[in-house]
């Protein structure tokens, strides 16, 4: 996952995807101005080697929503536009900037918050932080999210151990074609 080839593919794929999706990014940004007046959401996350970085996403929740793991957020916090963005995964597009900067990969363990102690401990013990976090990964396409930290860390570790270029493209394809439904929301 840390190979120079994957980094090169990440960079050019993210650059191409940003170029192609620019009209969509602009539309979502403009609609977001009317939805929450603050369409871009930036949150500190745990990166490779536990180094902090600022994850960039489109806002899907009201501005007043507490900054916690998604599975701890009430469903009522999701805006109407946010619900659409989450279903279509368009809220993730700005993370392509994180990929360009080398903070993330297209494929890797989803970056967690520094407040998710149980997940950080589980991932740390399995060496998950030795790789760049990703926009999507094996856990995400199998609908395993941060509400089950031990299982998530185990699947992340398995993905890292079994990682190949074939797996990389397979997980990207599964993500684009709609596998996985994103993090659960508290009802």
Model description:
There is one protein chain. With 187 residues, this protein is mainly alpha-helical. The protein contains seven helices and four strands. It has a two-stranded antiparallel ribbon. Strands 3-4 form a two-stranded parallel sheet. Strand 3, helix 4 (117-125) and strand 4 form a beta-alpha-beta unit. The radius of gyration is 16 Å and the shape is globular. The model has no long low-confidence stretch (mean pLDDT 91).
Summarize the structure.
With 187 residues, the protein is mostly helical.
Strand content: 5-15%
Radius of gyration: 16 Å
Mean pLDDT: 91
* Cα end-to-end separation: 35 Å
Q: How many helical stretches?
A: 7
Class inferred from helices and paired strands = mainly alpha
Low-pLDDT runs: none
List keywords for this structure.
single chain; mainly alpha; 4 strands
Summarize the topology.
Blueprint: H1 4-35, E1 40-46, E2 52-58, H2 80-88, H3 95-100, E3 105-107, H4 117-125, E4 134-136, H5 138-141, H6 149-162, H7 165-176
